[in-house]
Design brief:
The protein is an all-alpha fold and 299 residues long. The chain has twelve helices and two strands; from the N terminus they run ααααααααααββαα. The longest helix is centred in the C-terminal third of the chain and has 13 residues. It is globular, with a radius of gyration of 20 Å.
């Protein structure tokens, strides 16, 4: 709490310091434009793309794409995910877009900290020998891993290489790099509020989040009671500050998927996490800024 109050004190000075000339400078202190995708062998990336879309599950024919569709913002649009053998999972599906930049891949520490691709393959109980015997994947496997025995970690390596290509440069990136016309006036005002109110204390970095775990309801726990999953084992858990790139595409929101509207999600977070309620006009401006984080992955 001491850190939060100190941060709020710092944020109070941002409005005075960041006029039209200083807003970009202030933003660059907390965020940054997306980097290009890392270099990887084309054969490995192509195999990862094929594996991502293939029905790899030994029970039910599930694929990674079924839950993480780039056309749906890298998620699935469901309240909570469908897990192994089509069973209801305990969390809302996180986007895979720009996910290789997130330090924390999971909603909470209980989900583990392994490679997201490896965690998914293990959850689907993928049989590496069965994948290796698939004629449709044989040439890709041979090109990516010549002379090697196919294992689940190798499959995950290929999928991770593909996921690293799913970068989505957005208007906000163009603005950070100097294009003043890339953001509307409303979006710039929303960014100003995002900084002034302290949203960036948790939602910072290249993906505006994905780097830390915080109590849900840090200032006002009562304000989040309707949005926490009903499982009583969740009491006291800290949840990841969700990365906000493409957030306008990934409703419903929060670990529970209990909020369908982005404006409502912004209002809940401002009040419960920061103790800084927003007017409807302010909420609309922050939503306009968040919409400027929507980009498209290269085909």
């Amino acid at each position: 709490m001491r850190i939060l109050l100190l941060g709020l004190g710092l944020a109070a000075g941002i409005g005075a310091a960041a006029g039209a000339e200083g807003l970009r400078e202030q933003a660059l202190q907390s965020f940054g434009p997306l980097p290009p995708a890392p270099e990887a062998p084309p054969a490995l990336v192509e195999l990862g793309r094929q594996l991502f879309a293939a029905p790899l599950s030994t029970e039910g024919g599930q694929s990674c794409l079924g839950c993480h569709d780039p056309a749906k913002g890298g998620a699935d649009g469901r309240e909570v995910a469908l897990g192994h053998a089509w069973q209801t999972a305990p969390r809302n599906t996180s986007t895979v877009l720009n996910a290789s930049l997130n330090a924390m891949p999971s909603w909470d520490l209980l989900d583990g900290m392994e490679s997201p691709a490896l965690s998914g393959l293990l959850a689907m109980k993928v049989d590496a020998a069965q994948v290796a015997a698939d004629p449709a994947l044989a040439s890709g496997l041979a090109a990516a891993f010549p002379g090697q025995e196919v294992t689940v970690p190798l499959l995950a390596e290929a999928i991770d290489a593909y996921l690293a290509t799913l970068m989505t440069p957005a208007p906000f990136d163009a603005w950070l790099e100097g294009d003043d016309a890339a953001l509307t006036a409303e979006a710039r005002e929303g960014l100003q509020l995002f900084l002034e109110r302290g949203c960036y204390f948790c939602h910072y970095g290249l993906t505006l989040g994905g780097d830390g775990y915080y109590p849900f309801g840090l200032v006002d726990a009562e304000g989040t009671q309707g949005f926490v999953l009903s499982d009583t084992s969740e009491a006291g858990l800290d949840f990841r500050a969700a990365p906000l790139r493409n957030v306008a595409l990934t409703a419903p929101y929060f670990h529970s998927g209990k909020v369908a509207d982005l404006g409502v999600a912004v209002s809940v977070m401002a009040e419960s996490q920061l103790g800084a309620p927003l007017s409807p006009e302010e909420t609309g401006k922050i939503v306009a800024f968040l919409e400027s984080l929507t980009g498209a992955a290269a085909p």
